[in-house]
Structure to design on (362 residues):
């Protein structure tokens, strides 16, 4: 297990990058705590896999350093970093049995035969492949092979970190849930530092202690699922986390009031003068339909998703989503929407602005 430090780290796939826009991974400075489980979450092309491959040693960064427990490993090859990595698509030895595939990392390091047998049996139970231990990997389905890859990544107990690059892509949905649960159980039992790359917010939020949200080559927020939901530090986090994501609307801010197209909304905090692109963000869960107060809305449709209803509306030409309790009536006179003032986030140029709790302007 190891603390992982990203020191002035950046990477460009161009030989002579001229500016920030040429960098697939923009400058990062972060410490990732020893023994925690992290998920790298973001859309395709945001830099997740680039960062993971730098940590593993498969890619040399254009600038900066990677440190494990304050030891610089930037120039060390993958084998010297004592990590295990599981890739998006299965990597197995087809001519070996499932048992021998799982045992390979341990035998390669000279582990005791009795320990190897016990550990292989334990991992096989975890991935649900005890009955296939004596079968050759050749001929197994893609999801079975990926389970072998996962097992081989998890079989060693002495690694500095376990790295997973979208490992459940080829796994069927039911098995995905079971394997995520098993990975979380493994982490709780052994305390490995784990880094899990995914574009699926459900995978990230159910697996990780901390979620690292990436956008356009940057880490825009590191936080718990609750922090990402309640106080998104960037509008992308608000958009990407949640279903539906956070509503974002242009606004003018004066003290503890927001003005949307001239209509005033109270805020839970006070703000000083803001420049640039100023917006407010509100989760659909904290918006309420009304017949008398708030912003005017035009309801386009209502989607019943079982546990609640999602109202798709238009407000001054901007899309607005509102979550309404299952079975709650939505009358024809409900043509306005109000927001919980304490739940409104304020943004300037996409970054969250912290207001003053007193209600006085900063």
């Amino acid at each position: 297990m190891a603390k992982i430090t990203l020191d002035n780290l950046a990477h460009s796939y161009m030989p002579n990058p001229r500016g920030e826009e040429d960098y697939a991974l923009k400058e990062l400075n972060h410490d990732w705590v020893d023994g925690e489980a992290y998920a790298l979450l973001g859309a395709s092309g945001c830099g997740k896999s680039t960062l993971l491959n730098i940590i593993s040693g498969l890619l040399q960064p254009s600038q900066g350093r990677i440190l494990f427990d304050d030891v610089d490993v930037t120039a060390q090859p993958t084998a010297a970093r004592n990590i295990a990595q599981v890739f998006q698509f299965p990597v197995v030895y087809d001519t070996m049995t499932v048992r021998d595939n799982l045992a390979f990392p341990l035998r390669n390091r000279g582990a005791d035969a009795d320990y190897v047998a016990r550990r292989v049996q334990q991992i096989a139970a975890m991935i649900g492949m005890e009955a296939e231990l004596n079968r050759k990997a050749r001929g197994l389905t893609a999801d079975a092979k990926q389970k072998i890859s996962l097992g081989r990544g998890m079989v060693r107990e002495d690694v500095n970190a376990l790295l997973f690059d979208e490992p459940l892509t080829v796994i069927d949905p039911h098995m995905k849930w079971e394997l995520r649960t098993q990975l979380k159980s493994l982490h709780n039992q052994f305390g490995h530092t784990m880094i899990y790359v995914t574009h699926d917010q459900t995978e990230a939020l159910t697996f990780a202690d901390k979620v690292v949200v990436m956008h356009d080559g940057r880490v825009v927020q590191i936080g718990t699922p609750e922090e990402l939901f309640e106080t998104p530090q960037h509008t992308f986090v608000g958009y990407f986390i949640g279903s539906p994501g956070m509503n974002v609307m242009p606004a003018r801010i004066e003290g503890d009031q927001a003005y949307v197209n001239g209509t005033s909304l109270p805020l839970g905090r006070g703000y000083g003068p803001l420049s640039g692109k100023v917006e407010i963000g509100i989760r659909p869960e904290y918006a309420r339909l009304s017949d008398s107060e708030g912003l005017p809305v035009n309801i386009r449709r209502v989607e019943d998703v079982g546990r609640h209803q999602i109202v798709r509306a238009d407000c001054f030409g901007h899309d607005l989503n509102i979550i309404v309790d299952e079975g709650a009536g939505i009358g024809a006179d409900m043509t306005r929407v109000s927001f919980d003032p304490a739940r409104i986030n304020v943004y300037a140029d996409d970054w969250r602005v912290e207001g003053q709790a007193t209600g006085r302007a900063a």
Summary: The mean pLDDT is 90. Residues 247-353 form a domain with the OB fold (Dihydrolipoamide Acetyltransferase, E2P) fold (CATH 2.40.50.140). The chain has eight helices and 22 strands. Residues 258 and 265 are 5 Å apart (CA to CA).
